[in-house]
Amino acid sequence: MHQPRRAVAGGELEAIADADARDNYRLLLGFRDRLLAAGTLEACYAGLFLGARVDVPPLFIDQLVHVILRNILDARADPLEARAAELFFREHKATLRDGHVLLADRETVDRHASGSRFGSLGRLIVEAEGSIASVELDVLDRANAALYWERESRHDTVIGLGHGQAALDALARVIEAWIAHFFDTEVSVQPLRAIEERRWAWHIGLDAESNAILNDLWRGEEVEPGRLRRILALFRMDFSAAGLLRAEVAGRPVYLALSANERDEVRLKPQNLLINLPLAARS
Prior knowledge:
single chain; 4-stranded mixed sheet
């Protein structure tokens, strides 16, 4: 700890008796060396997705995203944006009831689904039982958003992504800030109820399920209604400088979608916003 950048010889690792400990140190040192070589957290994170495979544990990647977002959003001090940003680095569980879309931290739901003070929340989200109106949930909105700062490390607040809800707008602002930070360019991201264009120019699925659904819709294939209902949020992204985009996309919007998978799990992949943007420089 006193010399975090010190080179570690292979013999030092082999001297560790426990094989699991040796492997863990080897993994950690490899990650440290990648960080040092990259120079910045952002360069390290972006560089992870340039090769044929990602050789860094998912936990380390999520922690990178967490630290980067904390830096991006720190000056903004918006609790709803900070809570929405957790979608970038923590898996969530979704429930859709009576037109409401609620997202709760997956780890918290799993931990409390069997009868603690969050048992009702766990049963609602894991089993989709009961009525939202009859269950007291700590759902953040503008009126009570300050609660987040008291409980951010507990991951026990819920956000709604229904159209017109403040958390949906907050997520749009986080996406804008993420892209501005990495590409030094201004974009406008606005929630949508539906994509009206039949043959839109470009889309980005914020998760694997969304990417598959949008691909099928763009190709004109019929998408089963139950699968279509997995889309939790749609966004339209517009660039302030059309010249940054490929010629076939310039001046046209980019559509984004966030979905739950068949197990109602939501795993946003922020790297998709970096590697799938139709930037002219990447042609």
